[in-house]
Amino acid sequence: MTPRRHTLLGLLFLSVVGILSYYTLFKTDFSLFKESQVMTAFTEDARGLRKGSPVLYAGVRWGKVTAVTPDMTRPRAERVKIELSLDEPIKLFGDHEVTIESASVLGGVQIGIDPGSIEEGEVSTDDPLRASSAPDVLAALGQVVEENREPLRKAIAGIDQIVASLNGSEGTLGLLLNHKDTATSFSNAVNSLQGTLENTEALTEELRSGQGTIGKLIYDTKLYDDIERFVTGLEATNTDIQTLLKDAREGDGVINALVYNSTIADNIEATTESIKSAAAKIDTGDGTIARLLNDGSIVDDIQAAIQVFSNPDGTIGKLFNDPAVYNQVQQIVGDIADATAALRDQRGVLGVLFYDTQARDQLLQAINVLTGGLEEQREAAPIATFLSTVFLGF
């Protein structure tokens, strides 16, 4: 055998050993140092599960199915026995679930193990598991289609009608697609809308730059402060009104008395009745006010008196209308004012008598002396008369 054949034979041997090693180590879940775990599960329907199907633990591939065996001697819910080989031991909790589910939409079945919540407490993995079958997506979709066959047929027929109307000139979309004038009108409408949007954008830019009333309302801080002060003033006014109403309701002021005091209300009512009665008496009575309001002759007399006052030839008319009389009266008033000023300034005898207490006292003393002299003279008069009579006789 030549060296070349030895080399080819060696390469072939190494290739075969490599292929066998690959399938042994990676395709058969071969584990040399890991501790595996064997578990058993029971279910009612395996849904096509078979030997070699993957086992997922919390969504992670963790082993495979080693055997699927029907056992009709067991109860219906446990008539299919499934043996699992796990790469490593797992932990299960009280609310764990084992589900036979679809591996993908394209097909395939696998077993999913949800370990549950740690709060529920750990349970033993030596007991057989109870597996349930998840709904098959394709089967469920087929069932939905079967149950809604007639509505789907009608929907498809409606789609056909829509496509036919689009191909023709019926309806808005049909006119848009097939009628040139309608398409032109729609294009003009779109252009108008675009112009409107551009105007709106320009308006928004003006508002953003603080132009115009609305822009100032949004961006002018001074106007905002003025509005805020106004609102604050309104709030203060509202607070004052509430306080006033509370004081009127709970206090002892005039408003409280007017609103809640029945005596004042009765007095007001009585006053109103009195006014009504007085008005009725004025309308129907013969008093002075009634005659002033209702008697036309009194009005005539008043007009005649006004004419007398207005007549410049009469005495009263001259008093009101003659400038000379007005000047004389003004002069008299001025003289009285001068006399009053003289009295106040203690000018003249009357001024001294009014304001000088010493002169007033002397005058009073003189009056008293004069009065005393007159009293003595009056008392002495009878005696003088008697003596004159006596002496005249001699």
Keyword list:
single chain; 394 residues; alpha/beta; seven-stranded mixed barrel; two-stranded antiparallel sheet; 15 helices
Quick summary of this structure?
This protein is α/β, with parallel strands linked by helices and 394 residues long.
Overview of this structure, please?
The chain has 394 residues and is an alpha/beta fold. Among the domains are: 1-27; 31-143; 148-178; 261-288; 346-376, no CATH class. The protein has helices at 3-25, 137-147, 149-167, 171-178, 180-208, 212-219, 221-250, 254-260, 262-284, 288-294, 296-310, 315-321, 323-344, 348-355, 357-393; strands at 37-43, 54-57, 60-70, 80-86, 92-93, 97-102, 109-114, 122-123, 129-133. The protein has a seven-stranded mixed β-barrel with strand order 1-4-3-2-7-6-9. The longest helix is centred in the C-terminal third of the chain and has 37 residues, at 357-393. It is elongated and about 215 Å long. The termini are far apart. The model has no long low-confidence stretch (mean pLDDT 76).
List the helices and strands and how they pair.
Elements: H1 3-25, E1 37-43, E2 54-57, E3 60-70, E4 80-86, E5 92-93, E6 97-102, E7 109-114, E8 122-123, E9 129-133, H2 137-147, H3 149-167, H4 171-178, H5 180-208, H6 212-219, H7 221-250, H8 254-260, H9 262-284, H10 288-294, H11 296-310, H12 315-321, H13 323-344, H14 348-355, H15 357-393
Parallel strand pairs: 1-9, 2-7, 6-9
Antiparallel strand pairs: 1-4, 2-3, 3-4, 5-8, 6-7
